Amino acid sequence: MSGHGIVARFDRVTACFGTHRALDGVSFAVPAGGVTALLGRNGAGKTTAIRALLGLLPPTRGRVTVLGHDALTLPPAERGRIGYVGEGHPLPRWMKVADVVAYQAAAFPTFDRALCLRWLERFAVPPKRRVAQLSRGMRAQVALSVALAPRPEFVVMDDPALGLDTVARREFLEVMIDLIQEEGRTLLLTSHVLTDVERVADRVVLLDRGVVRIDAPLDDVRHLVRRYDLVFAGAPPEEGPALPGLVRARRRHGQWQVTVRGDEAAVRAAAQAIGADVASVEPLSLEDLFVDYTIGEEVAS
Amino acid sequence: MRAVWWREVRELLLPGLGAGVALWALGGDWAVRTQHPDRVALFGVVGGGFGLFQGLLDRRRRDDGFLLHRPASALRVHAARGLAGLTWLLVGALAFAGGLAYERQRWDSFPWIAYRDMLRVAEGRFDSDHGPAVTPRAELLVLFGLVTAAAWAAARFGVTRRRPVLAVLTTGIAVLGTWSFVARTPDVPSAVVATGIAAVGWFTWGLLDLAGARR
User: Is B162 left (phi over 0), alpha (psi -120 to 50) or beta?
Assistant: First the structure.
């Protein structure tokens, strides 16, 4: 791992595809030994960020470093320390499961074939079946097994639960929890299933239209970002209350409901300063946070 | 990178066999009646067609994380894939030689005699019902192989880079240029050198381009 406990770092990364800017000056770090969730709506830039991290996509500007090296010039030996499960679990469809295992084992010097076969047995995946004949859940399990078999220090998963049913997703999550509990592993994942993310993530990075909106420990975000119902003594302002750290404001029953990032006492004081009282405070689930940050409507900071 | 090479060889099974059958046919009776320059063009067509197919595969898998994320440089990965294509062209070359041997002297039931016939074809020492003028010399066999390889490399490069016009032009140049050499003069050696340079050039450029896309 890199000397400062950071496994990967994005430094003002911009990635353009023609006129479309998929990432716009993105900066964040993935600390060692935890789970970082990279969240965002479809098209927010998550997969682009993952691909830049693995050196599969050169950024237009900025720099990505992983394991202390520039991602574009990552030495092959270092690349072997990274496990990767791609979006949609891409595997050669004509290969049998055993062939996939052999193919990956030939490439990764640290590939633990016995471990891989134990995972496959746990998932009840027949080794002689072709990938094309596997269900989506089984394909995900094969992709995960071959990605973990080299015992990588840093695991990157791009929407690993994509297309999985509830039971398959739960099994996948259990494997991830086992993985996390192994000392020293670092996990970066993207996912749309925020209930799963809440169970496993230590840190959250939220991308919205190529820009980082949140980059903080999950507990801090949940503690600091809350929903407040404001009651104004007089007529409520038409354009929404101007509060520091305002994420979203909505008219509800003639008053304003605001999502604000900041210390509760400070928010109450700021509300009083504009002539409002806080009627209620509501903590937010990760899903509520995600929606409020990305909805992009009404008034937002 | 043997694992990558073997996987690519298997993935190219159907087009590879198709190219092999086509090259076998070029060694056949009807092809013997075709003048050498025209046969050069046919080799280019086979090579270009195979290169087109592999180029389409390359384009689809240019960003394939499962293929590219492994402890090896992109250059080695793409070199292994290129060698897989050349492997099938080599199989096709053997098929061509087999087709020639079959037509000029029917296969004996003993395989070692058929193998001897193939060697005699390569050495240009074959006597044929069609006369020595249409029996390919060894240098012509090399030329046919290089034209196939050049057309393959050019077509693959053009498709991978999404430049179909470039692919068609360069494949055409490789084929027609060589055809022109052979048709106008008996300067087969020069045509061999020129086509060989073109084949190596297109292969190397395509390899560096694919590998550079990730770096």
Answer: left
Q: Which residue, A160, A183, A209, sits at the end of a domain?
A: A209
| Three-state secondary structure call for residue B209 | helix
CA pair distance B104, B3, nearest whole angstrom: 39
A171 shares a domain with A55: yes
A275 and A236, same structural domain? yes
* Interchain CB distance below 8 Å, A92 and B7: yes
What is the token pair recorded at A167?
């039971």
**Total of domains in chain A:** 2
Closest residue in A to B7 (Cα) is A103
Residue type, B65: G
Please list the residues that pair with A215 across neighbouring strands: A205
What are the C-alpha distances in Å from A115 to residues A31, A84, A119, A142, A177?
A: 27, 17, 6, 12, 17
pLDDT band at B105 (very low <50, low <70, confident <90, very high): low
Is A180 found in the same domain as A61? yes
Q: Measured between beta carbons, which residues in chain A are less than 8 angstroms from residue B215?
A: 55, 58, 72-73
| pLDDT tens-digit series, residues A144-170 | 889 989 989 999 999 888 878 888 788
Using one digit for the tens of pLDDT, what is the confidence trace for A89-137? 888 888 999 999 999 998 898 999 998 998 888 888 999 999 999 988 8
Chain A residue at shortest CA distance from B12: A94
Q: Are B23 and B128 in contact (CB under 8 A)?
A: no
Looking up residue A45, the CATH number of its domain turns out to be 3.40.50.300
Decide if A54 and B65 are in contact by the 8 Å CB cutoff: yes
Indicate if ipTM > 0.85.
no
